[in-house]
């Protein structure tokens, strides 16, 4: 555990970048420092590897003051990833990644072997090993940056806006990769960003900082969204925090109906037998599936049977029942031309449909549940 | 005895001998200049306020005519090659110091921060990161310094035939053999071109990591390209200092525009 204990940083010109900050960063999880530009995130991060020395307060790792060990030893035990990767332009990719193992005295072959192993881990093709940084895309460079930080298998990873210079699609890929790596390797990651979405997506814990280096709130993302500590945090979370919060509610409790779901080979007689059932859920359309049960599209009841699969109304994007969140379910319903969301299983077979009203009920139920849990806890 | 390659015996050297002498008198000062410029440059990078005064001094020294140096030095080092080479070494500083300073400063902040964060101490950082990345700038500086030095050696003829190929100029007048002057000028120019080409080659060998230049062989002193969006951050690597006056043509002036 990294313990930041009432740390203050005053720069020589008098700027107080961090003001009596206390933070307990749990092991094997991602802790995100988020806040507006200039609020002291980088300063805080750099105090952890002593690139900046605090003016007051102490930082302890597993109970040991970081001042107590040689600075370069401390740093070699911590990976550090920054915006634009900061790769050594004069070294090949594999040698960039091998930097810290080499510093630790590994043989060249062993260090390079390790570097190649890491390239695979961060999703880089082995053929890039002997290239130079200028021959890589921004996203690939960023992956190299992550691999380089992981090279000596340090327990701690410090990341300062590592993904902010790449486009949103690449960023999403890198974020997913980071979550996967974190799951596999169980690193203690301190991650700085000014993007609240990124913070909520990645963070196990999120520390919201405000200008002047004050800690505004330190909480898991779901709690941040449900009960922001003050107006600043609420404002920082943005206008759609209610919707975003739904990301933390599973769709598993949603009451689906299979009444309007019909296979392509359903006969008029079979359909007639289900008429009452269909009327009861008041579905405006039938969801037609192929013989495997995979959804094909929506169809007005009077046009079925006999509807051509190519002329059905598009069902938009389905959500995976139980795995995707209520936010995804609501999004499907809102985007669906019929106002109903299509739920599928992991194989993509339709397991039922849900109306916006049903989803609304599930949201209310989930909120009530959460409140009860909060009161109890 | 009137041929292009017939060198008057008072010079005590064959044509090839003169070339060897010329190269020695031109290159040793640049090498010495480089050895001086490395620590001076590093000092200027570390102690920022030192850089402007150091630049003034090198520029002022550059403005001192070689003849003035000779007058002073001759009492100590006599009519020797050394007397010719000392001013040349001093002159080379005017290009080499800024080349090193700008080269080292062209290392992106992120790269330095990453190096520090990985636990590279100041010495390792300098030798393993800053210096290698400064190589293109350094070689650009060396190109200007060398070519300038090659052209300036000829002045040595003023202190008793210490000007190598330049001595042919004096002899051309003395013996009324203009062809010797032509020989002097052409040979010096060819030497300059060859050495310059060798330095370009050296840069190519030392910096396989630099992206291929779009501007052809002239784009000597380029720091490595960084990620595309940040091209604007690039600074000029070598500022063409006064030394460029003799050799405008080979100076990497073009690069500053990039
Ligand atoms: N070396 C320095 N000297 C003086 N003030 C500094 C120095 N470095 C940073 N500051 C100031 O300290 C404050 C915090 O800076 P810091 O870099 O930690 O911000 P940040 O949260 O990382 O911002 P950003 O999101 O823009 O990167 C800012 O007001 C900044 O101007
Ligand atoms: Mg910052």
From TrEMBL, chain A:
One of its GO terms (molecular function) is ATP hydrolysis activity. Residues 2-237 form the ABC transporter domain. It is an enzyme of class 7 (translocase). InterPro entries: AAA+_ATPase, ABC_transporter-like_ATP-bd, ABC_transporter-like_CS, P-loop_NTPase. Its EC number is 7.6.2.9. Keywords: ATP-binding, Nucleotide-binding, Transport. Signal peptide: none annotated. Belongs to the ABC transporter superfamily. This is ABC-type quaternary amine transporter. It comes from Streptomyces griseoaurantiacus. The lineage of its organism: Bacteria, Bacillati, Actinomycetota, Actinomycetes, Kitasatosporales.
TrEMBL record, chain B:
It holds the Pfam family BPD_transp_1. PROSITE patterns: ABC_TM1. SUPFAM superfamilies: MetI-like (SSF161098). Residues 19-203 form the ABC transmembrane type-1 domain. It comes from the Bacteria. Residues 223-238 have a biased composition (Basic residues). The keyword Transferase does not apply. The chain crosses the membrane at residues 26-45, 54-76, 82-101, 133-159, 179-202. GO terms for biological process: glycine betaine transport; transmembrane transport. The keyword Transmembrane helix applies. Residues 211-258 are annotated as: Disordered. Its main location: membrane. Keywords: Membrane, Transmembrane, Transmembrane helix, Transport. It is found in: Cell membrane; Membrane. It is a multi-pass membrane protein. One of its GO terms (cellular component) is plasma membrane. Belongs to the binding-protein-dependent transport system permease family. PANTHER family: GLYCINE BETAINE/L-PROLINE TRANSPORT SYSTEM PERMEASE PROTEIN PROW, OSMOPROTECTANT IMPORT PERMEASE PROTEIN OSMW. This is ABC transporter permease.
């Amino acid at each position: 555990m990294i313990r930041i204990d009432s740390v203050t940083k005053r720069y020589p010109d008098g700027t107080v970048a961090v003001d009596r900050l206390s933070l307990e960063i749990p092991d094997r999880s991602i802790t995100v420092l988020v806040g507006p530009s200039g609020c002291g995130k980088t300063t805080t991060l750099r105090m952890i590897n002593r690139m900046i020395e605090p003016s007051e307060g102490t930082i302890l790792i597993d109970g040991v003051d970081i001042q107590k060990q040689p600075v370069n030893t401390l740093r070699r035990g911590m990976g550090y990833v920054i915006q634009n990767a900061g790769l050594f332009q004069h070294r090949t990719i594999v040698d960039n990644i091998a930097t810290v193992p080499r510093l630790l005295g590994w043989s060249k072959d062993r260090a390079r072997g390790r570097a190649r192993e890491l390239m695979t881990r961060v999703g880089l093709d082995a053929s890039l090993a002997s290239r130079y940084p200028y021959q890589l895309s921004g996203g690939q460079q960023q992956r190299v940056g992550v691999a380089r930080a992981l090279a000596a298998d340090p327990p701690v990873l410090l990341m300062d806006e590592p993904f902010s210079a790449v486009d949103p699609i690449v960023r999403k890929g890198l974020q997913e990769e980071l979550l996967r790596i974190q799951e596999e390797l169980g690193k203690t990651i301190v991650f700085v960003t000014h993007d609240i979405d990124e913070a909520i997506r990645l963070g196990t814990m999120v520390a919201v900082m405000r200008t002047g280096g004050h800690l505004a709130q330190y909480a898991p993302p779901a709690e941040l969204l449900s009960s922001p500590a003050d107006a600043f945090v609420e404002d920082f979370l943005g206008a759609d925090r209610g919707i975003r919060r739904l990301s933390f509610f599973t769709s598993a409790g949603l009451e689906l109906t299979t009444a309007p779901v019909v296979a392509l080979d359903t006969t008029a007689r079979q359909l007639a037998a289900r008429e009452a059932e269909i009327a009861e859920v008041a579905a405006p359309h039938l969801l037609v599936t192929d013989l495997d049960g995979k959804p094909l599209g929506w169809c007005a009841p009077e046009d079925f049977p006999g509807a051509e699969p190519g002329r059905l109304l598009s069902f938009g994007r389905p959500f995976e029942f139980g795995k995707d969140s209520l936010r995804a379910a609501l999004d499907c319903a809102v985007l669906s031309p019929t106002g109903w969301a299509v739920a599928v299983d992991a194989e993509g077979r339709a397991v039922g449909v849900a109306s916006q009203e049903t989803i609304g009920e599930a949201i209310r139920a989930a909120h009530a549940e959460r409140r009860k849990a909060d009161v109890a806890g | 005895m009137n041929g292009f390659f017939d060198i008057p015996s008072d010079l005590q050297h064959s044509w090839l001998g003169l070339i060897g002498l010329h190269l020695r008198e031109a290159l040793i000062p640049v090498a010495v200049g480089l050895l001086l410029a490395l620590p001076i440059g590093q000092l200027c990078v570390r102690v920022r306020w030192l850089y402007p005064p150091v630049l003034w001094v090198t520029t002022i020294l550059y403005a001192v005519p070689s003849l003035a140096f000779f007058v002073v030095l001759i009492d100590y080092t006599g009519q020797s090659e050394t007397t010719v080479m000392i001013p040349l070494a001093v002159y080379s500083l005017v290009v080499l110091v800024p080349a090193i300073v700008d080269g080292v400063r062209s290392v992106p902040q992120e790269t330095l921060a990453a190096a520090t964060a990985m636990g590279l101490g100041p010495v390792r950082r300098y030798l393993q990161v800053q210096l290698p990345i400064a190589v293109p700038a350094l070689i650009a500086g060396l190109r200007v310094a060398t070519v300038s030095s090659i052209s300036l050696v000829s002045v040595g003829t003023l202190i008793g035939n210490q000007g190598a190929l330049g001595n042919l100029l004096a002899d051309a007048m003395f013996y009324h053999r203009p062809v010797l002057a032509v020989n002097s000028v052409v040979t010096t120019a060819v030497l300059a071109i060859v050495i310059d080409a060798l330095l370009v080659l050296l840069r190519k060998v030392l910096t396989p990591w630099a992206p291929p230049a779009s501007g052809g062989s002239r784009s000597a002193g380029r720091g490595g390209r960084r990620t595309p969006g940040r091209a604007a951050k690039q600074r000029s690597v070598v500022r063409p200092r006064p030394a460029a006056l003799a050799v405008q043509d080979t100076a990497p002036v073009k690069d500053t525009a990039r």
